[in-house]
From TrEMBL:
Organism field: Blautia liquoris
Highest taxon, organism lineage: Bacteria
One Pfam family named in its UniProt record: CM_2
Subcellular location: Cytoplasm
CDD domains in the cross-refs: ACT_CM-PDT (cd04905), PBP2_Ct-PDT_like (cd13631)
Site feature location: Essential for prephenate dehydratase activity: 281
GO cellular component: cytoplasm
Protein name: Bifunctional chorismate mutase/prephenate dehydratase
Amino acid sequence: MPDLEKIRDEIDSIDGQIQKLFERRMNLTGEVAEYKIATGKPVFDQDRENKKLECISESASSDFNAKGICEILRQTMSISRIRQYQMLAEHEDDLFSGYIQLEHLPVQEAQVIYQGLEGAYASEAAKKFFGKCVNTAHVGTWEEAIQIVSKKQADYAVLPIENSTAGIVQDIYDLILEYPVYIVGEQILPIEHELLGLPGADISDVRTVFSHPQALAQCKEYLKEHPDWEQRKLLNTAVAARKVADDKDIRQAAIASHSAGELFGLQRLEEKRLSTEKNSTRFIIISNQKYIVKNAEKISICFELPHKSGSLYHALSNLIYNDLNMTKIESRPIRDRNFEYRFFLDFEGNLSEPEVKNALIGIQNEADELYILGNY
Ligand SMILES: C=C(O[C@@H]1C=C(C(=O)O)C=C[C@H]1O)C(=O)O
């Protein structure tokens, strides 16, 4: 019978040697970083790493060990790059140029745009975020709202980015990259939809229900109870309410907010909930200025990665190694590059923190593109 204690003593001694070797290796990595900072050579050298992995896997005594040692070396090299990015970060300021640090967002007489009409959920989100001291105006599409802000014809726009039931609003993810706008805030709004019809109408009269596709998706379970209703998509929930009011046809109903119902003189046709109790939408506030408020605690970024095995893993290791908490990740297809994706990430932090800077420099160096969408 083998002696467990003795074997464990030997394992401990090997681990001690690994630790010493690791520390020696990390010191050398520091010297490599100094060389790279002085010469401008990129930290990541894929060829060098591939050759090392090939060489070490060839000299392993079994396939199992070859895989194992490659895994260890891959991790070790990833850590060595993270250390080099930390050193690089001390010499790098460009990434954060142009940001304006503020106590609070400037809202006095600000012009705020949203998509839809008065009574749309975005108008409620705008009121909740900004209070009543701002001027709001509405436009027909999300892209118009973003364009107006990017051309500095308005200060802010309020855009829905995700709903707790129906998921992300894909178009917003795609659009915010196309214009020079920054996320400067967010507002979560509990959403309670109502089924709205003409005064005097009854639920049994309904044949067609109008709403925004997101609202229809949020009420999917309820609508299953009425398979005979035709579902028609419109640009906005408030637009749907206005249509029902204008058409004066008792067979039409809209799914929209309570305030849209009041605004267009409609009556609630259904007492029960149309979506879950927790149904909420997260709106982002965008600006044409790189504002960061003092207590900003969330960072949104977007990056593209080389289409190679492990590239997302390595990008995320920059967050893990710097103890940063990722709160969301989404991927969206890159147009004209079939089945290649860009990633949208939210994580907790402030751009002034060294860990955040280290992580972003690491991702920037290994990603094809990095966009900092905002810190709010
Ligand atoms: C240390 C270096 O930097 C990076 C890390 C490597 C490593 O830890 O072995 C290898 C190549 C580079 O991606 C280097 O360039 O030698």
